[in-house]
Request: fold
Amino acid sequence: GDRERFFAGWRRYLPITVRSKETVTSKIEFYLQVYFSIYALTPSNKLPPSRDPQRVFQEEMAHFKNYLDSKGSELASSAEFLAFYALPYIPNPVEHPSFKHLFSKEWSRELRSKLKTFLGQNLQPMSNPILMQVYQDFLRESGTQSAKGHRDKSRYENQSYDDLKEKYQGLQTQYSATQKRLEHARSDLIESQTKWTNFTRDILNLAKDLLKSIKRARRGYPIQDQTIQLVSEKIHRYGTFLNMNMDDLTMTSHSQYISHASVDVDNNGTTGEVLDASGSYIESITPNAHHRTVSAISVATNVMQSLNNIHYSKIRSTLLSKSVEEVKKHAILQALRWRLSRVRSSLVKKQVLHYYIYYDVLGIASAEEEKSTIEDSHVRGDLSKLKETSLSEDGFKILLEDMSRAGVEYVIRFVNVIASECAGRTYLLKCDRVIHLLVQVLQAEEEDSILRQNALGALQKFSLRRDPQSVMIELDMIKWILETLKREVETLSDYSIEYATALLMNLSLRTAGKDKCQDPSLEVITVLIDLAEHENLQVRTYINGTLYSVLTRGSMKAKAKQMGLEEMLVYLMKNSDEQIRKQIQYILEQLHSDSQDGEESDDNEDDEFDAEDSEEEDDEEEFISEDEDMDDVIEKEGVLTGEELL
Reply:
């Protein structure tokens, strides 16, 4: 009587090509829905004593009504099923003349027999032996297949028309995309012009007030110290605004940022004087301005003030020391990770990450690396001490090798959070073997552990760049993903499925990735079909993207057609939202397209990108998900944690 468990198995084991057959499958599914809706009132029900049959019946009948209003509505015009649409509204169906036969053992036994026959006919092995598939692929790709010479003549006559139609549709799609980009660019331009117009107006007002103060001074009125201080503060804020990067400028309006308080850092690396954020730009520097009350310090300023008072080089040397107790390293890595994952302000998060990179907390970069990318007003530490304690590029590798498995988990979780930012990925990739190390950690884990999830998450974020993509493809990550999805799909966490499918899509975009996908033993099309109905829409998007990519290969198209992919996609289109329907439409067009991907490698394209360009390839940044920052309690007496430890 467990409806949810039964239909989960129904969707899992019954091929979608069978479920899409409306005439046969819909009827048997309808009767199964009836069976589960009335099961609680049947004499043979096996409900536990604690469950009230009448209450269970009402709950199941509500599910049946939803089914009739949605998928079951297709059979409303059939006389065979019309009476059942009144079932949810009958107070006592057990006694009703039209429905009382449903509660008999004979009806249940007859339905069970029909179901057994149906499953026996549709759960037969559907795939040919591998040797036959290889032979068919050989015939198809070599052009010697006899059927090829007997194609209908009309296809060749209409080939030119079909090509022109396909090109026209492609041009229409490109035109629509170009129009959207144009509108987006126009909106950004207007927003940018507005910001800079406001900024210029502020500067002009400041200049006018300075001129007024100078004129008053010439008439013998002294300039108050408070006025000079307020002017200095405004100039400092304007300078900070001009030094913001483009990401922050797009996220933060001029007026919002100028109104925030600013923080200065003194020579000892501790937080200095906090500047106020009060008053309008004209009145705040007049001789009467010193009578104003200093406004409250912003939340972001308070956060930065508490985050600057730590000794980064000491933290790094502690992490990379072999004499320090490992549990203390765990606590340090946890505290550093929390600084990034638990702060709400993106500006503060970026600043914290800049400190981590500048002071090389993981021992990845060399001490001689140029450090002029961070404003001197924010960092004025003793660089001579930093150089004395700097380690080689092997520091990150040493950190992993010296740790126990629990320690490696703390390292990888920290790496995963850093990799969520573009600057963090650039920093981590300075370690030439970071991808190799992550893959090694990933493949050594046999279960879907927190360690494996974080290694997978970090690899997916690195896959936004071409060089790491190439390394992962070479290390057979596509094979690992497909085999894991086949073997563990029922037990994998939502996080693992989402990041695994996203990584698979990114790798399949490359020519080398498509070459790997053509290996028949990987059963790429089978794996993708099994996940095509996943409840997570993001996973379905990644699956659709991978399908579109691999179907550029002729052998993959032939395999997909042989497995009935087209029928499955048509069925999915009827039960999907607008976004998924569009994706499926593109896949169908790709499936029927005669154009094929070239077999030549695209590795030469990498030469067009230098180191700076590669950083711009993945300028998108990700939020820190809850799965990446689950609470991990360090239970050892005397060990400090969090900000108290730092």
Summary: Residues 253-299, 366-393, 603-616 have pLDDT under 50 and may be disordered.
